[in-house]
Every structure is written in C-alpha cells, then in structure tokens.
Amino acid sequence: MLRRKVIGNLHLHPEVDGIDVLNGLHGWISNQLLEAWRAKKPGLISRASFDRQLHRICHNLRTFKKRFGFPKHLVDIANTDLNRYRKERFVKQLTLVTKNSDETLEAIDDFVCCSTERSRLAKEGDLTGDDWKDFDGNLFQSWQNIFRRETRLRAGEPEEDIGYGIFSYTRDKEFTLGEYTAHPYFVKGTYHRLADDKQLTLGWHPQFQSLIK
After folding, report:
1. Would you list the DSSP string of 159-185?
2. Which of 183, 83, 203, 89 has the alpha carbon at shortest distance from 140?
3. Start-to-end CA span in the chain (Å)
4. Nearest to 185 by CA among 138, 133, 119, 117
5. Where are the domains of the chain?
C-alpha cells in the first residue's frame, strides 16, 4: 500500500513503470545517504535534487527501450543473495585465472543482472529466440577467435596470465542485441552464463576443461 501511495504521489507519466522508478530512486537515495554519513554529514536530500533525479530516471526509462534492456543500476536484484553463487561453475572458471575477490563479486553481479533482464525481456516478448541465439553465437565466436589467438601467440607464458588476457579481451567488447548495442553487463553476464554451461565449451584458462572436470 505504501509503494502504491508513493507512486501515486509522484504523478508519473503513464508510459513509465512506477516500480522501476521506485527501484531507481531507492538506489540513488541509499547512495546519497551513505556518502553523506561517511563524510560525517547529515543525511539530507533537497527537494530540488530529488526532483532532478526523478526526472532523470523517468527520462531514462522512456529513452532506454526495453528491447535492449535497462541500464544496470535499474535492474532490481536488491533481494538477491549473491553469495550463494560463489560455488557456481562460472565462478570456478574465473578463479582459475584471477584470485581478485572484487572481480569475483563483479562477475556474480553481472551474471545475476543479465539473468534477471533476460528473464524479463523473454517474458515480455521484446526479443525473439533468434535474437538471443544470434547474440550468444556472436559472443561465442568472438571468444573462440580470441582464445585461439592468445593460446598460440602467448605460448610459454604462465597459463593463468594467458587466461586472464582472454577473459579481459572478451568482456570489453561490444555486441548488438536485437537492433541495439547491448549494455556491458549483458555481454559480461552472458559470457559467465556460457562459462557456467555443463558442456564446458567456453572458459578462460587454456586448460579450463580438464581443470574444471
């Protein structure tokens, strides 16, 4: 009831989803308060800054078509326990080439955001099965080319370093999803989805198949 009351008081445009606006405002307000408290300042937000942020979120929601997904900060994963993914195959794949805990958390975050948006877009019918098939196929083909190049040209180097290079090159590329450029978390999250597959057709470490098995 409170959420509905807040949405009603915001007087939103009919094309804008009120829950998405609340999620965006919740994240922004939380960050503003935390920054103020860390600086030992009062946790106050002015009416003007709130209105500017509300206008910005509404503008983005109307500008960013659902066809290519919401920006990452608007994907609602607030109640998701990210720690439960630490034992998944895609995390094991990543730890073969890096022990950086921040990168592990970022990978889990990208994986969950990507999975959440893929489910939403599939449910709402904004993308076809062929769109997803082409997207996954293009990512796999790019990884395959990078994997072959790096393992050949860097033979003799530490395999962990070669694997980290493969991971870095693939995650930083741009790809088209439907008619638009996919958000970076879609690319990185989809790569982690592919690395999580039981068939072990994609990985980062040159010996990922034998090591994961």
Report:
1. HHHHHHHHHHHHHT---EETTEEPPHH
2. 203
3. 50
4. 117
5. 2-63, 82-212
The CA distance from 111 to 91, in Å, is 10
pLDDT digits (tens, 9 = 90+) for 48-107: 999 999 988 888 776 665 446 777 877 878 777 888 899 999 999 999 999 888 999 999
* Contact of 190 with 134, CB cutoff 8 Å: no
Token readout for 72 is 């990452």
Cα separation, 213 vs 203, whole angstroms: 12
Does the predicted model carry a pTM greater than 0.70? no
The two tokens of residue 15 are: 């094309």
Residues belonging to the chain: 213
Task: Give 177's strand partners.
Answer: 180
Q: Is 188 helix (H, G, I), strand (E, B) or coil?
A: helix
CA 159 to CA 82: how far, in whole Å? Answer: 29
